[in-house]
């Protein structure tokens, strides 16, 4: 589903060059749930933004569902992103002037979906995250956990095959974090491939596979035998 080979990203300004990703190899198979951990500044968000086609990269190869992303123009990239990928941002990125219904509607409108289908999808997605009765509310009227649920609903309304989540439980208390994670597990159980960045080792341990990014490079984390059993067929380091 997601194949990255020696992906590099350099941010250049007049004064400094930052090597956000050095040579990142990562392969995620269809249906997997991968948690990505790593120190602050190690390149996790950069990796997710590239995976989600929000940013370009400066070296290496990225195939998304077999499509070589590098060769695509802006329109083709946007189209691919919109059709295949749901993104939960670090911070919720909800639009304060729009109610919940209209927030979830944004990516669907962008796809040019008919209004009747959009309405069904929005109601279903907000219902799934337990906010079906609050569709006319505005983000400021919600708790942090509820706002995060809206962000999840927005990412899911388009039925993405790949869900990318950047600290989806950051800023939430531990009980709220667990319920958001349960929601993500349900989504994975329904077949969506998930890549989730998290600082929380307890949440990471619930994914099928853990990848650690340090200094712009990724390695698989070898886990305790009990936890590793489910992923025993996978190599200890990403190929
Ligand atoms: N737009 C940008 N311009 C210049 N440098 C950037 C930019 N975005 C990120 N960087 C740099 O790239 C490196 C990786 O940043 P990134 O945001 O990917 O880290 P992260 O692992 O997500 O950190 P955190 O856990 O704090 O969210 C950092 O050194 C950061 O300063
Ligand atoms: Mg980050």
The main pleated sheet reads as: 6 strands, mixed
Q: Report how far apart the termini are.
A: 15 Å
Supply the number of helical segments. Answer: 8
**Beta strands, count:** 10
- Provide the number of structural domains: 1
Order of SSEs: EEEHEEHEHHHEHEHEEH
Order of strands in the sheet with most strands: 6-7-8-3-9-10
Low-confidence stretches: none
Q: Which small molecules are bound? A: adenosine-5'-triphosphate, magnesium ion
Determine the structural class based on helices, strands and strand pairing. Answer: alpha/beta
Q: Please report which band the strand proportion falls in: under 5%, 5-15%, 15-25%, 25-35%, 35-45% or over 45%.
A: 25-35%
- Could you say what the CATH architecture is? 3-Layer(aba) Sandwich
**What's the CATH C level?**
Alpha Beta
Radius of gyration: 18 Å
CATH topology: Rossmann fold
Structural topology:
Elements: E1 2-12, E2 17-28, E3 33-37, H1 44-51, E4 59-64, E5 67-68, H2 74-84, E6 85-88, H3 100-110, H4 115-128, H5 144-156, E7 162-166, H6 174-189, E8 193-197, H7 201-204, E9 209-214, E10 217-220, H8 225-228
Helix pairs in contact: 3-4, 3-5, 4-5
């Amino acid at each position: 589903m997601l194949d990255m080979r020696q992906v590099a990203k350099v941010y250049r300004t007049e004064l400094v060059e930052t090597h956000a990703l050095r040579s990142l190899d990562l392969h995620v198979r269809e249906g997997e749930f991968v948690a990505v951990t790593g120190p602050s500044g190690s390149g996790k968000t950069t990796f997710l933004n590239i995976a989600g086609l929000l940013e370009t990269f400066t070296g290496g190869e990225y195939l998304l569902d077999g499509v070589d992303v590098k060769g695509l123009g802006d329109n083709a990239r946007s189209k691919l992103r919109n059709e295949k990928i749901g993104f939960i941002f670090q911070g919720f990125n909800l639009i304060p002037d729009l109610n919940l219904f209209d927030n979830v509607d944004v990516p669907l409108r962008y796809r040019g979906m008919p209004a009747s289908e959009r309405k069904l999808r929005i109601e279903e997605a907000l219902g799934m995250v337990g906010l079906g009765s609050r569709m006319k509310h505005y983000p400021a009227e919600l708790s942090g956990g509820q706002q995060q649920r809206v962000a999840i609903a927005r990412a899911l309304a388009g039925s993405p095959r790949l869900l990318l989540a950047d600290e989806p439980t950051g800023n939430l208390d531990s009980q709220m974090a667990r319920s958001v994670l349960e929601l993500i597990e349900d989504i994975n159980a329904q077949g969506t491939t998930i890549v989730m960045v998290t600082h929380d080792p307890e949440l990471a341990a619930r994914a099928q596979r853990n990848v650690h990014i340090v200094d712009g490079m990724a390695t698989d984390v070898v886990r305790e035998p009990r936890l590793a059993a489910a992923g025993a067929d996978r190599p200890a380091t990403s190929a």
